[in-house]
Write a structure and sequence with these properties.
Layout: E1 2-7, E2 25-28, H1 41-52, E3 59-64, H2 65-75, E4 81-87, H3 96-106, H4 110-118, H5 120-127, H6 134-143, H7 147-159, E5 170-175, E6 190-192, H8 199-202, H9 204-214
Helix pairs in contact: 1-2, 3-7
Length: 231
């Protein structure tokens, strides 16, 4: 059975994967550390991979910002495969409205940042209409996230423009109505109708079915599904 590391979105943690159900993998959902001041995505990804003990036999993936971190880890040749769940290969996927929210957040004082991000308007702008428990869970996770992680991680999410492709198979599932990130330009990316940026919370059954179909199993020979390399 493969080991799959799933990294959460910015301002989230392992709770966002709590409805995902059983998968044909040993799933690890580590919390992301606070990036160092001025640290770039490549150095941050290397730090995360080292802390988690990720090696070239493991699969990595994640949601939103967590997907970007996983992409950076995969670009370093540390992963057998990459799984994007409403995630992105680079900052090019961040749509203009979400980019504006991110830039504003970078300049808000700490005491004002969380209330601004927890507001109905911001959540609706990023996720669309609430589909319980989406908003409630997002607010709970935001309150437990260090402000420095939100600010510094937000900067990384807006400034990650790698020059190289992902050298391993890329599997992607994305909300058809995602308001924050465009679908990654990879072959056979599954678009889930009616799902937005929080599809792992609102449509966990669809994500579970997709991952069960595409993740490698021990009986599949070399353990790598047919998938396109990411740009």
């Amino acid at each position: 059975m493969i080991r799959l590391f799933l990294f959460p979105a910015l301002g989230a943690d392992e709770r966002m994967f709590s409805l995902l159900g059983e998968l044909p993998a040993r799933v690890e959902t580590p919390r992301l550390p606070v990036p160092g001041k001025g640290q770039g995505m490549d150095a941050y990804a290397e730090q995360v991979a080292e802390a988690c003990g990720i090696d070239s036999r493991d699969w990595v993936g994640g949601c939103s910002f967590g997907g970007m971190v996983a992409s950076a880890i995969a670009r370093q040749g540390r992963a057998a495969g990459l799984v994007l769940i409403g995630g992105a290969l680079s900052s090019e996927a961040v749509v203009p409205a979400a980019r504006r929210v991110g830039k504003i957040s970078l300049h808000l004082p700490g005491p004002l940042l969380r209330p601004a991000l927890e507001g109905e308007h911001t959540l609706n702008r990023l996720f669309g209409p609430d589909r319980p428990p989406l908003y409630e869970q997002a607010r709970a996770m935001l309150r437990d996230t260090p402000v420095e992680l939100i600010v510094r991680g937000g900067r990384l999410a807006l400034e990650y423009f790698p020059a190289t492709d992902v050298p391993c198979p890329v599997l992607a599932v994305h909300g058809a109505e995602d308001r924050a990130m465009a679908p990654p330009g990879v072959e056979n990316c599954l678009l889930v109708p009616g799902a937005g940026h929080g599809l792992v919370v609102t449509h966990p059954e669809a994500v579970n079915r997709f991952l069960r179909e595409v993740l490698p199993r021990p009986s599949r020979g070399n353990g790598r599904p047919s998938a396109r390399k990411g740009g």
